[in-house]
Amino acid sequence: MSSDRPDDDIAADAGQPRWFVASLERGLSVLLAFGSDTPELTVGEVARRTAMSRAAARRFLMTLERLGYVAVDPKQRYSLRPKVLDLGFAFLSSLNVEALALPVLKALTRETTETTNLAMLDGGDIVYLARSVAYRPLHMSVHTGDRLPAYATSLGRVMLAGLPAGALDAWLARTPLRALTPHTVTDPERLRALIADAGRDGYALVADEIAVGIISIAVPVLDAAGKVAAAVNISSQSGRWTGPEMIERFLEPLRAAARDLAPALRAMPRPPASPPTEGRTP
């Protein structure tokens, strides 16, 4: 039976509970098909990236266009509209990040004269929750709500170090390690060793891996149970500081900021520990 039938808004896909709304999952997958490397996509490209038929992809894109989340040009190439930011900012607003965390980041920027960031781990990426940008520009543009591959960032590595061994194994098995610069670590065993070092030392230092010219140092932010809930870092130009200088100048101020941020993280709403199971009200 075709998956494009009109009544498939609520579908019992294999392995999913009866309350699972398959069309919502597929609609979200269409939005997630767009990215920094694919800002414009045709119907066929969306269909391939989401493993759905062209007819289904076209229906979802036309619906998203009507709702204002995507736009289409005369060449029938679709792109995201600013309205999609509402989805991310709704999450960030619910966390009340600016009121709770930004004062700490701004104080750290004043002390160090460098850009500071707070992020959480989400799948294979880190998501920036709050930033305090120094006057000195970096060689890449990052904004609150942006995502970057966790494996190539100090923020990501220090949070990955907080995962249980089995969870880290699963994360490494499902996450493609792509070279973003000539210096990006893509060997799984070397990356595993660097993550272990971050867990042992309580910080991660990364230079020129996410972008040439960027160096950063990060420490974990712990929840009430002492587990890694987020991470805070200082980013700068790699020509300004060596790794040892970053550690000497910034590690202790970072750790102090992490202690100050911990109460803010605990005040933010947390997702449930596990997804609903069959029979539970979603």
What does this structure look like?
- This protein has 282 residues and is of the alpha+beta class.
- It is 41% helix and 18% strand.
- It has helices at residues 22-32, 43-50, 54-67, 85-95, 97-100, 102-112, 154-160, 165-174, 188-201, 243-267; strands at residues 40-41, 70-72, 78-80, 115-122, 125-132, 147-149, 204-207, 214-222, 228-237.
- The strands form two sheets. The chain has a six-stranded antiparallel sheet with strand order 6-5-4-9-8-7.
- A hairpin with a 6-residue loop joins β7 (204-207) and β8.
- α2 (43-50) packs across α3.
- The longest helix has 25 residues, at 243-267.
- Residues 1-12 and 269-282 have low confidence and may be disordered.
List keywords for this structure.
about 40% helix; 6-stranded antiparallel β-sheet; disordered N terminus; globular; alpha+beta; about 280 residues; Beta-Lactamase; Arc Repressor Mutant, subunit A
The best one-word shape is globular
Percent helix among the residues? 40-55%
Low-confidence stretches: 1-12, 269-282
Describe the oligomeric state of these chains in a short phrase: single chain
Short recap of the structure:
It is built from ten helices and nine strands. With 282 residues, it is an alpha+beta fold.
